Amino acid sequence: MDISIQQYIKTKNHNTNYYRRNKAERFNVNSCPHCEYETTGPKSALKAHIWSKHTPEHERPFQCPCGTCEKGFSARANLNKHILKQHKIEMPKKINRETLIYKIIVNKKICKDKEMKCRLNYYKENPIIIINTLPIKQDNINISYDTIHYDKGCNMITLITYTRRELLNLYS
Q1: Are 23 and 40 in contact (CB under 8 A)?
Q2: 45 — phi, psi (to 5°)?
Q3: Contacts of 60 (CB under 8 A, 6+ apart)
Q4: Where are the chain's structural domains?
């Protein structure tokens, strides 16, 4: 009897090898509690499936910051596509992880959207936002990276970013 058992050998590509082996042998399968969807990929694949297929739009993690269309998305990339197509605003491709502080200057522009008015009032009262405090959720205000960059794209605010190096140069 010749039984060949493939043994797992940890190499420099061990993560890739793990997922390839798991796909073939199905020893770690994540199942959706709502339907028959299964994945041998990471748990984040199942989480994305649940957000996109079984979560109501208003509860999804990436909400449109405009306040009028009330669209929700399971991935930031889909939110950015929506904002570009529907609102004609190009969001930044990548959030700069070196940025520590946003300084926000409210531009003098009339705003009719109630949600955006609340954000603009918050910016007036709190012009400095430390990145590690995002997202900010107070009463009916929800401020995240997306809302700040959306407001910048609408020319409602001027956004000045500071990195650690810039702050050290500024205050030394």
Answers
A1: yes
A2: -65, -40
A3: 51, 52, 72, 73, 74
A4: 14-54, 94-171
